[in-house]
Amino acid sequence: MENIMEIENLNYKNIFKNFNISIKKNQFITISGPNKCGKTTLIKILDRQIKTNNSIKLNNRYLEDYNIKDLKERIGTVIFADDNSFLFNTVEEELMFLLDNKDIVKAEKIKRYKEIIKRFKLNKYQNVNPNTLYKNLQIKLKLAMAIILKPDILLLDDICSRMSRKETTEIHDILKYLKEEEKMTVIMTTDNLEETIASDILYIVSDGNVLLKGKPLDVLEKDNVLNRLGLELPFMMDLSVKLRDYDLIKEPELDMDRMVDILWK
Amino acid sequence: MEIKFKNVIYEEFNLNFLINSNEFTGVTGEGKSTILDLIKMKYLAKGEITFNDIIVDKSNLNSIRKSISLVESNFPKQAYLDSVKEYMEFIIKYYKLSIKDPDKKIQDSLKIVGLNQNILERNINTLSKSELKLVQIAISLLSNPEIILLDEPFLDLDTKNEKKIYMLLLKLKEQYKKTIVIASINSNMLYKYTTKMIFIKNSKVFLEGKTKEVYTRVDYLKRNKFEIPDIVMFTYKAKKNKQVKIDYHKDIRDIIKDIYKHV
Predict the structure, then answer these.
(1) For A113-135, what is the mean pLDDT?
(2) How far apart are the first and last CA of chain A?
(3) Which domains does chain B have, with CATH numbers?
């Protein structure tokens, strides 16, 4: 698979020093690291909210060589900490506005709108003022808005940080669908390593550089490095590495039922 | 300070619970932040609230309010206040805190939370997440509260900073005899850090009791859609699926010891 996005020798303030990542098409990438490692800054750089020169390529072209409208169509972004309010009085208007701005036939618009509402379970809220929704639902709506025009890349910054496990699972089910069915590339930052397990590649970033990179399970096994950074291992990974230290298991096991079966045959 | 809610009615809420003096109490479930607001007595609710056996009424409301501090999940920024010092001085004025020597009080509060005095001159926007949380706690101490209520105090903090905040809260409880109430949706955190739990469901207290006892009622909590802490869930599965005699623990190392014995 070809690279869709390349970060080449990115230098930015004191946050990134010769930072490199290449992202293949249709991958689900997660990026984690300790507080202040630059996760939000990175997403803003990739979204060109923060401008850099000759550092970021999208489909082999530098971001600065795109016109901004073109770029916005290719990249959908949701940043948790962004507090910009919604423009319209209902969820429906908010979503339909985005579709109306595009040259799509009416029947197709309505079909797309209905699909999104169903997929995101927003049925109940269609006529609600989005500014009155509670934060996690606003995030969900922002995600719907980010993908309604089918961008190539989705950039997500910490969007599940205030969600319950159930809400987080719901979001991850949507992400799985976007990757598998809509063939999107997803780049997501998170503090919660539990959320990285389903990704294709996990990057751990610290002090302006990529410290660890690989399949999530391989990265998460490095408990010493992660603990030193102040990152909390998902419970089952923590249990796995500790049990392995005592020779009680051979391989990490993230499923509780299977772990119980392995330990007590 | 002990807090008791008896048939306290506010909007759809009807609440009965007890928060023991000098303990870590956790609150979870829908409306947890409203519960904190009600304990802080932001709103006037019907029913009986007692603080250390004193019934709250109009005559004592203001003085009791001052002995309760609320640390919100986000730093409540004020656009026109830049430095930490300005912010802390604003709080003292705004809440009409009667403090003889405000400068000294501010310094003492910072000292307790382990912040250097030079943070006073810093712009609030330049503070890290853990510094913001520590400043928030320092601010909460300005009124000499007996009770400190915290909404999601560990949110967005990495494990090092989470531990730092917890150790501070522990110090406030042990050394300064504060009563600590933590509202959170994170069952792992609540199980680890609290000794008493209050579960809210359908605007009522659904379950109340010692953290270790209530959180191990796995079937009951699951049926009612509460999150179960991972460490409890694992132990529960071992007990239920394999009839293994391991105990519920808070620390993963204790589980490992138990597994070692019973495998």
Answers:
(1) 96
(2) 42
(3) 1-67+145-227 (3.40.50.300), 75-144 (no CATH), 229-263 (no CATH)
CB atoms closer than 10 angstroms to residue A193: 21
Cα gap B223→B244, rounded to integer Å:
23
A54 in B contact zone (CB under 8 Å): no
Q: Where are the domains of chain A?
A: 3-233
pTM across the whole model: 0.92
Is A87 at the interface with chain B, CB within 8 A?
Answer: no
- Give chain B positions within 8 Å (CB) of A205: none
Neighbours of B68 (CB within 10 A): 23
Residues constituting chain B: 263
As for the ipTM of the complex, it is 0.90
For residue B56, the 8-state DSSP code is P
Thinking of the domain A3-233, which architecture would CATH place it in? 3-Layer(aba) Sandwich (3.40)
Q: For residue B197, give the H/E element and its range.
A: strand B196-201
- Best residue of B128, B130, B158, B234 to probe chain A, by most A CBs closer than 10 Å: B158
pLDDT tens digit sequence for A191-201: 999 999 999 99
Instruction: Report the pLDDT value the prediction gives residue B164, as an integer from 0 to 100.
Output: 95
DSSP, res A214: E
pLDDT given for residue B81 in this prediction: 84
Q: Which chain A residues are within 8 Å of B255, Cβ to Cβ?
A: 239
β-pair partners for B198: B27, B208
Q: Give the minimum alpha-carbon distance from A164 to chain B in angstroms, rounded to a whole number.
A: 6
CA dist B95 and B97 (Å) reads 5
Smallest Cβ distance to B158: which of A34, A260, A264? A34
Please state, as a whole number, how many other Cβ atoms lie within 10 Å of the Cβ of residue B174. 10
CB within 8 Å: A161 and B129: no
Per-residue pLDDT tens for A140-149?
999 999 999 9
